[in-house]
């Protein structure tokens, strides 16, 4: 199915894989990019997700999206999928304990000093 508003094609994928437990998504991405009639130059424009293996194995069904370009992928695709496929780096945030310590340090000061405690930008 063509979706011009989101600059992509949407489709269901049926994979038959006898004698194998499953097929990796990266292998499928490259195969779809190579075999597709759409002349996909970059396999990163292919996003695959939601695969279910049939009972007994040997067959899987999933969902796929082929974007027109990598800019459309970054604009419309969900962030966790971009991280999962290695298109964007994972953002490391502080842990729960660090957040609590920062909150309690901010409670002890007033006004402009709060920005110094949080480590905000220094003005020139």
From TrEMBL:
Disordered: region residues: 94-124
Alphabetic keyword roster: Ribonucleoprotein, Ribosomal protein
Gene Ontology biological-process entries: translation
Pfam families: Ribosomal_S24e
PANTHER family for this protein: 40S RIBOSOMAL PROTEIN S24 (PTHR10496)
MF term (GO), any: structural constituent of ribosome
Database matches in InterPro entries: eRP_eS24_sf (IPR053709), Ribosomal_eS24 (IPR001976), Ribosomal_eS24_CS (IPR018098), Ribosomal_uL23/eL15/eS24_sf (IPR012678)
Annotated protein name in UniProt: 40S ribosomal protein S24
GO cellular-component term (any): ribonucleoprotein complex
Domain of life of the native organism: Eukaryota
Organism whose genome encodes this protein: Vitrella brassicaformis (strain CCMP3155)
Keyword Ribosomal protein set for record: yes
Membership in a protein family: Belongs to the eukaryotic ribosomal protein eS24 family.
Composition skew (Basic residues), residue ranges: 96-124
């Amino acid at each position: 199915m063509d979706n011009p508003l989101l600059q992509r094609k949407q489709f269901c994928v049926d994979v038959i894989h006898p004698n194998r437990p499953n097929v990796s998504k990266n292998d499928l991405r490259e195969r779809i990019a190579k075999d597709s009639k759409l002349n996909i130059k970059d396999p990163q424009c292919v996003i695959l997700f939601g695969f279910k293996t049939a009972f007994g194995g040997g067959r899987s069904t999933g969902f796929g999206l082929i974007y027109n370009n990598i800019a459309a992928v970054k604009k419309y695709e969900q962030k966790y999928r971009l991280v999962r496929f290695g298109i964007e780096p994972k953002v490391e945030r502080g842990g729960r304990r660090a957040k609590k310590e920062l909150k309690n340090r901010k409670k002890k000061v007033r006004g402009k000093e709060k920005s110094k405690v949080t480590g905000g930008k220094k003005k020139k």
